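Hello,

Our lab assistant flagged a job as stuck in the queue for most of the afternoon. It eventually completed. Since we weren't sure the result was trustworthy after the delay, we are filing this so someone can double-check. Below is the sequence as submitted and the structure that was eventually returned. Let us know if re-running is recommended.
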Amino acid sequence: MNAESRPQEQRFDLSADELKFWNENGYLVRLNVFTPEENDAFRQVAEDIVDRKRPFPSVHIDQNALVRDGKAAQQGIYAMHKIHFPSCYDPEFLTRVRDTRLTDPIVDMLGPDILGINTLFIWKAPKIGLGFPWHQDKFYFRTRFRTETTVGTWTAIDPADKENGCLYVIPGSHKWDIFQHDDLEGSQQREFKMAQGVRDEDGVAVEVPPGAVIWFHSHLLHKSMDNHSLRFRRSFVAHYLSAQAEWTKPKPAGGSAVMWIRGRTFPDKVHEVERDVLPIPESTGQ
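-- returned structure --
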């Protein structure tokens, strides 16, 4: 399909200082990557999915854990936690994942041939939005892919600060081994595991305005806190993989959620799904 795609010119590549910061710290922040108008339009697409105005498999629409467990009574977007794999089912999400403002820097991190492997639109609702514990993405992705690293991107839809649950990172932890991750007690125990032996005092808050993007290495220890404010803290997360990566075991049958992003693909490596946007499974409804 895209195996012979020509290399794309980089307009938003990393400066020498940015590349040095990335190599030393395992994350990078750019401000004003997306405009307020783009943020508002993108947020509306996500909310239209929740309101069933756009087709989307309901199995990938998740409520806030406190609402799900009957501990909070919010409705609508105030009851939301996330939509999972939106770029696999919605063309506007796929367009965003392929946006060169996100992917040009990744060429300098992973090389020119890039796949998308996971996307999330997250609502961290006022007062009930839950954080997630210290973890490393490689702990999860290593069971699927054999590669040195993946790269995550985190786009702020709203201001993200300490009060409403911004990200925290441990600079330089991308150079460390993968920590043991154990089950988490509480409402989110089915979704997350927690890295053991991490010191909170090593964490640095990454407070960013709307439209900012954070890129982070898959070994980087990161977490977020609960939302204690009366404001949303919405974000869009997309993870990327070199098309030179290999499956850790034979390619899983169906639903691998791997999408072509840019550059070449290789049939003997991890390969993209056959279509740009997947059909909505009838069994899950809209």
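-- support follow-up --
The delay was a queue issue, not a problem with the job. The result is valid. The mean pLDDT is 89. Residues 36-50 form the longest helix (15 residues).
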